[in-house]
Every structure is written in C-alpha cells, then in structure tokens.
Specification:
It contains three helices and six strands, in the order βββαββααβ. It has 139 residues and is an alpha+beta fold. The strands form two sheets. Strands 1-2-3 form a three-stranded antiparallel β-sheet, with no helix packed on it. Strands 4-5-6 form a three-stranded mixed β-sheet, covered by helices on one side. InterPro entries: KH_dom-like_a/b, OsmC/Ohr_fam, OsmC/Ohrsf. This is Peroxiredoxin.
Length: 139
C-alpha cells in the first residue's frame, strides 16, 4: 500500500492513493488553513468508520442476513496536549434489514472490532473504544 501527499498551498494538501484516488485535506483557519477539506485526523476517524462498516455489511451478507443499510456514527475525544492522539472513540452502528438476528449483528460488530478492522484495532492502541448498535426493521 502506498500514498503520496503533495502540498497544494497554504495548509492544503492532496493525497493520491496507491489505487489512484485523490483526497484533499486542509487545516483549520486558526492553523493557517481555509477549511476547504477534512483535517487529516478526521480522515483517520472516517477510515476507521468505513473499515468497520465494510466488515459488518460483508459479514452479515455472508451470514445470509437481509441487510439493507448500515451507518456508523463515530465520536472521538483527543488528548489535550501533543501528540493529540485519540483517547476515546465511540462507535454507534445503525443496521437496517429484514428480520435481522440481533446475535448476528452483535457477532459481526465483534468480529470487526476484534479481528478484521485494522484501522480501529490500530486506533485502539491509544484510545478506549466502545461499540453500540441499533437494529432498524426495514419496511
């Protein structure tokens, strides 16, 4: 895996991923940025959310669960002093489907958290991570 970061101007940067995708990043105005794109730490949080959502959907589909939607809301706290690592991250999943088995949803989230989601497992080295979920019955 690789990624190249190029300074654009001010505090704006553009990442080009190994798969050829571009991601813009910018700093907060109080740090010289113009707030034109996400901050790098926001992208780390989004990456962890995407990683676990991918796992949960795939695990439930493979388990023949009729999943229709999956959303993950993450809330994170950071250290007050440098390095301002994540110290606590709360994951809340909203999983929608027809007749989803609660034990299957719980298992999928547990497998992601403990085995498959490299991003959240890595962030768990500095942050206390909690997981909650809600199941919504699809119409």
């Amino acid at each position: 895996m690789e990624c190249t970061i190029k300074w654009v101007d001010g505090m704006s940067f553009r990442a080009e991923t190994g798969s050829g995708h571009l991601i813009n990043m910018d700093g907060a105005p109080d740090a010289g940025g113009r707030n034109l794109a996400p901050r790098p730490m926001e992208l780390m949080l989004a990456g962890a959310g995407g990683c676990t959502a991918f796992d949960v959907v795939l695990i439930l589909k493979r388990g023949r669960q009729d999943i229709r939607d999956c959303a993950v809301r993450l809330e994170a706290d950071r250290a007050d002093t440098d390095p301002k690592v994540f110290t606590r991250i709360r994951f809340h999943y909203t999983v929608t489907g027809k007749n989803l088995k609660p034990e299957s949803v719980e298992r999928a989230i547990h497998l992601s958290a403990e085995k498959y989601c490299s991003a959240s497992i890595m962030l768990g080295k500095t942050a206390e991570i909690t997981h909650e979920w809600t199941i919504v019955e699809a119409e």
